[in-house]
Amino acid sequence: MNEQVLVVEDDRSVRETVTLLLERAALRVAAVDDGRQALERLRQHPFDLVLLDVMLPVVDGFRVCREIREESQIPIVMLTARADTADVVAGLELGADDYLTKPFQGPELVARVRAALRRRDTDPLAPRIRIQDLDIDASGFRLTQAGRPVELTATEFRLLVELATNAERVVSREVLLQRVWGYDYLGDSRLVDMAVKRLRDKLGDDPRHPRYITTVRGAGYRLDAG
Question: Residue 27 sits in a domain of what CATH number?
C-alpha cells in the first residue's frame, strides 16, 4: 500500500499510537494536533484518508469535517470519546464516512481504515442507471437530477448505486453495511441511516412523502422507480 493517511488528534499518546498502528499496516502517516493545521495540510498535499478527532483545539473536528466536504470527497473516519451522544450523528450528518469510539482496539482501527480505502478504490459495478429523473453514471461517479449535477460524497454515491441497482426491492441495513461500507460485523446502522438522510437532503426527497427513497419499517430502504 502507498496510501497516505492524515491523523488529526491533539492527544499525543493517542496520536503516536495511531501513527504506529497505521505504519505497521504499511500506510504512510502524517499527523497534526489541531484543526487549522489539518486544513492547511490537506490544501497543500493530497491524502487518501483523514482520521479526525472530534475534540480539537483551535478548530474543532466538526468544522474541519464540514470544510473538507466543501472541497473534497476524501474518506473521513471520525474519532469520538462518546458513542452514545450526538457527536456520532453530527459527524455523519456533516459527511463523515465512518466513526470509531475511544478507547478502540488496534485491529479494529486498522480494519476500518483499510475498509474506507478499499471503498475509495472500488468502482461500482453498474456503468449507467436511469431512474425517474436521475441519471447515475457509476463509472464516472457522477449524478444528474433533471439534467442538473448533484454533488455526492463517495459513500453517498455508492449507497445510491446500491439502491438503484436493486430498484423496487427492499435492501436491509445489514446488506447496505456489507456492500457499501464493506463491513460484515464492524458497522453501525447509524452509518446507513445518516447516509440515507444526507442523500435524501441532496435529492430534495421528503421522507414523509418520498419520491425516491422509501423507508420500509423494520426491513430497510427501497428506491422507487416511479
Answer: 3.40.50.2300
Chain center to CA of 129: 22
173: containing domain: 128-223
Enumerate the β-bridge partners of residue 72.
none
Share of the chain above pLDDT 90, in %: 62
Residues 9 and 104 in one domain: yes
Determine the 3-state secondary structure of 5 from DSSP. Answer: strand
Among 73, 94, 121, where does a domain finish?
Answer: 121
Last residue of a domain, one of 65, 90, 121: 121
pLDDT digits (tens, 9 = 90+) for 140-183: 888 999 999 999 988 899 999 999 999 999 999 999 998 888 77
* 219 Cβ contact partners less than 8 Å away, ≥ 6 residues apart: 170, 172
Q: Hey, what amino acid is at 137?
A: D
What's phi and psi for 104, nearest 5 deg?
Answer: -120, 160
Amino acid found at 157: F
Residues 65-106: tens digit of each pLDDT = 999 998 888 999 999 887 667 788 888 888 898 988 888 899
pTM above 0.85, yes or no: no
Peptide bond into 103 cis (omega under 30): yes
Other Cβ atoms closer than 10 A to 217: 5
Q: Do 215 and 160 lie in a common domain? A: yes
